[in-house]
Write a structure and sequence with these properties.
Blueprint lengths: L6 E4 L7 E4 L8 H14 L1 E4 L6 H9 L4 E9 L14 H8 L16 E8 L7 E5 H7 L2 H7 L3 E4 L1 H6 L20 E3 L1 E3 L6 E3 L5 E2 L6 H15 L5 E4 L6 E5 L3 E5 L9 E7 L12
Parallel strand pairs: 2-3
Antiparallel strand pairs: 1-2, 3-13, 4-15, 5-13, 5-15, 6-12, 6-14, 7-8, 7-11, 9-10
């Protein structure tokens, strides 16, 4: 299969994203992948309906994008014994609810993730969508005054910070991202290492701009998020079983959407590792 055989349909009324058909991800050759990768850099989010990837096939596909931060993790309210969890006091449920805030993956780690491959295995009857928001288009739409204001600013990023707002405070080492390292300090304005376009690094893990007081910092970061998630810079995907998506974590924020958690929702997430050269953050 060569790269000319798949079809790309840009999302209507959105600054990013495309649906890709006429391709089977479990069977693509290197030429086809390179053509898909070019489309991925252009659109940041590629949606592949009716793929029904196995876990092993998902990992193989994700590894085409580079080394993985982790191979595969279930994002689900269903445990290994098939029990459905919906009690809001449970850490499992608090973690899922945390993901409903706009965020960028692994900004709280020393090296931010490059991207992710996500698949739908069981979906609820309604709700449970995933949304993405385009921080490149957001930056480009900012006023000149705001661009000047944030140009040199940095913010800390912490999963402890974001989850503590939900009353979720695991012990050190109990879950990915809960560690004793100093929180990374990341520039709010970032240059994409491959496209060279300018975008924002913001979201629920960001806090504590050193040059500002706590209240002013929180207000500015929230203002940037609120601006980013306005049309046409946002898209929410209604999942069908078998869907696979890959998104550019350097450009897009994302969020889960609520659903009746008495219904099962089973998704699998493979996270693509960022480059030490471009996604590493220092400390204060």
């Amino acid at each position: 299969m060569d790269g000319s055989q798949f079809l790309v349909y840009p999302l209507k009324d959105s600054s990013f994203g495309a649906v890709v058909t006429d391709v089977k991800l479990s069977e693509i050759d290197d030429e086809t992948f390179q053509a898909l990768y070019t489309q991925w850099l252009e659109y940041a989010l590629l949606i592949f309906p009716d793929q029904h990837l196995t876990n092993a096939e998902q990992i193989i596909f994700a590894k085409r994008f580079g080394d993985l931060e982790f191979d595969l993790a279930p994002i689900t309210n269903v445990d290994k014994d098939g029990n459905v969890h919906f009690d809001p006091t449970e850490d499992r449920v608090k973690s899922i609810k945390g993901n409903m805030g706009w965020h960028t993956d692994s900004t709280y780690m020393p090296i931010q993730a490059k991207g992710a491959v996500f698949t739908a295995h069981t979906v609820p009857s309604t709700g449970g969508e995933t949304g993405w928001a385009d921080t490149q288009a957001a930056y480009e739409a900012l006023s000149d005054d705001m661009k000047r204001k944030i140009r040199a600013l940095k913010a800390y990023h912490s999963l402890w910070y974001s989850q503590s707002k939900l009353g979720h405070k695991p012990k050190v080492g109990e879950g990915y991202g809960f560690h004793e390292m100093e929180p990374p300090l990341r520039p709010i304005v970032k240059i994409h290492p491959e496209t060279k376009r300018t975008m924002l690094t913001i979201g629920r893990h960001a806090y504590g701009i050193p040059e500002m007081g706590e209240k002013a910092s929180e207000e500015l970061l929230q203002e940037l998020v609120d601006f980013t998630v306005q049309s046409p810079r946002v898209y929410h995907h209604t999942w069908q079983v078998g869907d696979a998506v890959v998104w550019d974590n350097r450009r897009l924020m994302h969020q889960g959407r609520p659903w009746d958690m008495k219904e099962p929702r089973i998704m699998y997430h493979a996270r693509i590792a960022g480059s030490n050269d471009s996604e590493f953050a220092g400390h204060a």
